[in-house]
Amino acid sequence: MFPSILAAIGNTPLVELSRITRGLSGRILAKLEYLNPGFSKKDRIALQIIEDAEAEGQLKPGQTVVELTSGNTGTGLAIVCAVKGYPFVAVMSKGNSTERARMMQALGAEVVLIDQLPGSTPGQVSGGDLALVEEAAQRLTLERHAFRADQFHLASNRRAHSLHTAQEILSQTGGRIDLFCDFAGTGGSFAGCSAAFKAHNPAIQCYLVEPASAAILAGYPVANPNHRIQGGGYSMPELPLVDSNLVDGYLQVTDEQAIAAARRLATEEGIFAGFSSGANLAAALQLLETSGRGKTIVILLNDSGLKYLSTDLWPPTSP
Length: 319
What we know:
This protein starts with 13 loop residues before the first strand and ends in an 18-residue tail after the last strand. Helix 5 (155-173) crosses helix 6. Strand 7 (179-183), helix 6 and strand 8 (205-211) form a beta-alpha-beta unit. It folds into 2 domains: 5-36 and 157-308, Rossmann fold (3-Layer(aba) Sandwich), CATH 3.40.50; 42-148, Rossmann fold (3-Layer(aba) Sandwich). The longest helix is centred in the middle third of the chain and has 19 residues, at 155-173. The protein has 8 helices and 10 strands. The strands form 2 sheets. The chain has a 6-stranded mixed β-sheet with strand order 1-2-10-7-8-9. By secondary structure, the protein is of the alpha/beta class.
């Protein structure tokens, strides 16, 4: 028996995608992060950020917590703050799916929704849209005398994955993995897992995944910042948490490839995951068909498909 829901964060299953890889040489192992209580990998960083801040005296009893979010970190923080007794304010772009805002509100969070830039499309949040959210988060932090759970800069984000996610994967595989690829959001899961994997075996190769139209980290010009892969690919020229020495290569995935892969996860493996999970699978399939042929590849399935029922990720039912 757990003392609270916080003890249920982590220790998610690792599943081989043997149906999707049928006929291919190699394996893809998927870490089912959508089985965390808040239905995403971000529960891990929410708990780590708050507990580290408590230990370091940066977060006082009853103090308000503020953070910008596409919805997943906000959900994780709403859960952690509800259990620990901190008021939480989630600041989110109106371009993100409505399910996530409603889930955060249900968990007791105050949700502040920020208009997108003129001409932006709902469901396609750009780096410019995120900059508006960041401005609002900074203002609210000052106004509320709040603790800022800054997921793009706090090392706790990276630590959550190096201390826990990566160690679980190494235990579940007996350390026998060859490649890791991960979609670029804050870069925390990539950085934390990659550092731990390379400490275990420097031969493990780690690839950062970006939207094909906004592959700025790979050095390409941004053709379209308003891609459909929610939760990352914000066209930021650098991610503060990512050490470039950890990156063995970059992979690009189109919106259509990410969507098709997410749908394959559902129909072929019975796994209901979101856009960025589809991007990770699409990137892993690229590797299996090229330089990763015959290898074992690990990916994270970052969040649940339930968070995207209002989007075009899932076709509407016929009348």
